[in-house]
């Protein structure tokens, strides 16, 4: 039986970090598994409510007393650039820790996720060094300036599918705009973020970046509902997002929610066939299919449908699934056993709905106890099929066909989600019309998975609330203050002088 080598033996990590010092959690023990072998590789000790209180208090103390919110732009830029460097200097260890708990493929972690994690700090360093303000002069002789001040202490909740790439966007933005933070990684995938926070704490003043670990319902719920938290930034599932927003709402704490997706990848006969094919595979099978922006519903124009699906299946059957550490691997294991079983349950849904299974749909037994799924594709009976409506969040593509542009638009928008849409066509009026009509936060035309960090990222409908990106993060992580001053001596109002 195949037994892959474990990427790294996790050091004995204390769980949380408050005020720059490690804290040993006081809660229960959570086992951590390596998805490629199913072996337990470590134990996480949960941080209970009092541990969370301690981390929040450390952040508040740093916010009030350390001078962090008032730091000059030059010093803050230097620190953010140092954060970028320390990630790149430790890329090997961070990548192994990321792989250990997530099962993400090492070449993708090192080639994309970690460079992005490092770049997030550079991006916000560049952003704040270009920041400008507002001033209004009025004819009555008053001048008003608008100042952006750090929001305060922010709670950052990270998911398990791409912890480093996703959490660093939140950390870098929060720090760039002068906030202090408490980060909670997913309880399934804590190691890479524990290491990251400890590395960043070598550079940052004590208490600026704190860490708590544990289950969402325990550690996470206490953190997001905490009265001393000024912002909650959450990436995760839509169901959890509703709970988090309700808890934060009771404290009137503003939130951003980056939630699930069921993105339509619309391929017209006028598209460059080979590029659309290549990108369709990338957008559903990279990151082991576990990404919110996956092109999981592939809508293909009827005249090219059979050719496209045949070509897709031929390439899908050649995908290298296996050891996430091996350079030739393209698809690794699913992040957890429970999630693997959930993904496979959609094969039964497809059967019940009358969809046609085209390939895959089962666990790869030859790969041992790891959570490996054969890349899967179905042709759905209609867009109402469960596989076209639910976020499966795995290497599972659902095909649909359409005859007209209007039919494609209507099918693409017929979903509770609205994160991303992909449009493939070399006919300009088609791409203009379709991209205008997509009810999604991002439309990628003839390109897959292309993030522009200056532009907003986030979803319509149940895919989210708020946006991440340059201006969006500036707005979210700051409070605006208007200061109004008369430019000339004030004329007395004569009030009470009659
Ligand atoms: O993640 P959860 P789940 C989607 C995907 C997946 C589904 C369920 O479809 O199948 O969500 O994933 C923390 N208060 N995405 O349930 O629960 C939790 O500890 C505060 C899309 O495993 O959303 C973790 O740190 N925090 C997605 C984080 O929330 C709470 C990424 C995300 O976990 C909490 C992941 C609570 N009450 C899943 N409950 C994306 N948008 O990319 C949980 N958490």
Give descriptors for this structure.
Aldehyde Dehydrogenase, Chain A, domain 1, 15 helices, 498 residues, binds ligand TXE, 2 domains, alpha/beta, six-stranded mixed sheet, 39% helix, Aldehyde Dehydrogenase, Chain A, domain 2
Please specify the SSE layout and strand pairing.
Elements: E1 16-18, E2 21-23, E3 29-34, E4 39-45, H1 49-65, H2 73-89, H3 91-102, H4 106-129, E5 134-137, E6 142-150, E7 153-157, H5 163-176, E8 180-184, H6 191-200, E9 209-211, H7 216-224, E10 231-235, H8 238-250, E11 255-258, E12 264-267, H9 273-285, E13 297-301, H10 302-317, H11 337-353, E14 356-359, E15 376-379, H12 386-389, E16 396-402, H13 405-413, E17 420-424, H14 428-437, E18 442-445, E19 464-465, H15 470-476, E20 478-486
Parallel strand pairs: 7-8, 7-10, 8-9, 10-11, 12-13, 12-17, 13-16, 15-16, 17-18
Antiparallel strand pairs: 1-2, 3-4, 5-6, 6-20, 11-19, 14-15
Helix pairs in contact: 1-7, 2-4, 3-4, 3-6, 4-5, 9-10
Bound molecules: ligand TXE.
Protein architecture, described:
There is one protein chain. This protein is an alpha/beta fold and 498 residues long. The protein has two domains: 261 residues, 3-Layer(aba) Sandwich (Aldehyde Dehydrogenase, Chain A, domain 1), CATH 3.40.605.10; 182 residues, Aldehyde Dehydrogenase, Chain A, domain 2. The protein has 15 helices and 20 strands. The chain has a seven-stranded mixed sheet with strand order 14-15-16-13-12-17-18, sandwiched between helices. A six-stranded mixed sheet has the order 9-8-7-10-11-19, sandwiched between helices. Helix 2 runs antiparallel to helix 4, helix 3 crosses helix 4 and helix 9 packs across helix 10. It starts with 15 loop residues before the first strand and ends in a 12-residue tail after the last strand. The site of ligand TXE has 25 residues, from helix 7 and helix 8.
């Amino acid at each position: 039986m195949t037994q892959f080598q474990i990427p790294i033996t996790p050091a004995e990590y204390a769980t949380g970090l408050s005020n720059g010092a490690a804290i040993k959690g006081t809660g229960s023990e959570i086992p951590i598994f390596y998805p490629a072998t199913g072996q337990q590789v470590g134990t996480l000790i949960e941080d209970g409510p009092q541990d969370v209180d301690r981390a929040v208090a450390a952040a508040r103390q740093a916010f009030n007393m350390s001078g962090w919110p008032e730091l000059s732009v030059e010093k803050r830029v230097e620190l953010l650039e140092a954060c970028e460097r320390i990630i790149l200097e430790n890329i090997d260890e961070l990548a192994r820790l990321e792989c250990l708990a997530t099962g993400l493929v090492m070449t993708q972690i090192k080639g994309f996720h970690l460079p992005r994690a490092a770049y997030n700090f550079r991006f916000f360093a560049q952003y704040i060094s270009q920041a400008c303000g507002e001033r209004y002069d009025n004819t009555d002789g008053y001048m008003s300036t608008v100042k952006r001040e750090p929001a305060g202490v922010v709670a950052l909740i990270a998911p398990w599918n791409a912890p480093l790439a996703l959490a660093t966007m939140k950390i870098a933005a929060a720090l760039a705009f002068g906030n202090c933070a408490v980060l909670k990684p997913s309880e399934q995938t804590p190691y890479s973020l524990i290491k990251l926070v400890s590395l960043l704490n070598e550079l940052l003043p004590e208490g600026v970046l704190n860490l708590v670990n544990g289950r969402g319902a325990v550690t996470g719920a206490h953190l997001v509902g905490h009265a001393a938290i000024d912002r909650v930034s959450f990436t995760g599932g839509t169901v959890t997002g509703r709970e988090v927003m309700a808890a934060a709402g009771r404290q009137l704490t503003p939130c951003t929610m980056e939630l699930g997706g069921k993105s339509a990848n619309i391929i017209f006969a006028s598209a460059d066939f080979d590029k659309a094919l290549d990108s369709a595979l990338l957008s559903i099978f990279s990151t082991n299919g576990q990404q919110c922006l996956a092109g999981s519903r592939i809508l293909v124009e009827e005249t090219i449908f059979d050719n496209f699906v045949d070509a897709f299946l031929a390439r899908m059957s050649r995908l290298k699934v296996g050891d996430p550490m091996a350079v030739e691997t393209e698809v690794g294991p699913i992040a957890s056993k429970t999630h693997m079983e959930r993904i496979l349950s959609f094969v039964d849904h497809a059967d019940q709905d009358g969809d046609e299974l085209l390939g895959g749909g089962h666990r790869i037994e030859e790969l041992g106890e790891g959570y490996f799924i054969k890349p899967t594709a179905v042709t759905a009976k209609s867009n109402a099929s469960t596989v076209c409506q639910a976020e499966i969040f795995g290497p599972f593509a659902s095909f649909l066909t359409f005859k007209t542009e209007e039919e494609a638009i209507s099918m693409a928008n017929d979903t509770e989600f609205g994160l991303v849409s992909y449009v493939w066509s070399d006919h300009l009026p088609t791409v203009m019309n379709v991209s205008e009509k997509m009810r999604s936060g991002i439309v990628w035309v003839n390109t897959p998975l292309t993030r522009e960090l200056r532009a907003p990222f986030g979803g319509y409908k149940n895919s989210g609330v708020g946006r991440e990106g340059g201006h969006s993060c500036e707005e979210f992580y700051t409070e605006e203050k208007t200061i109004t001053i008369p430019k000339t001596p004030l004329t007395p109002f004569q009030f009470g002088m009659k």
